[in-house]
Give the backbone structure.
Amino acid sequence: QVQLVESGGGLVQAGGSLRLSCVLSGRDFTNYAMGWFRQAPGKKREFVAAVNWGGSQTYYKESVKGRFTISRDNAKNTVYLQMNSLKSEDSAVYYCAADRGIKVATNEGGYDHWGQGTQVTVSS
């Protein structure tokens, strides 16, 4: 079965950077589009970014455009989320997700597999 393991979260000051990683095991990584979502306390989980299987198409939540970059390394079965110019409102648990659909999904329901999440805390 598919397993997703995130890493790279932590505590950072506003304006700082973090890079999240997510490794997929158990299936062929190139069969999946990959996404990042986040959930802050008391809020619904929301879409952050997604990338198609080959890495040529990317999608972003409007508020992270220009600050976050999603990428993937198919040789390492890994998807990344580079987060720059972090703000306090970016604080959340970040989840990676895998999608076998033909189209890259930007909603939770489009994803088949989820990681356990990694905490990102941005102090102001």
Observations:
- The mean pLDDT is 96.
- DSSP finds no helices and eleven strands in the chain.
- Residues 48 and 58 are 11 Å apart (CA to CA).
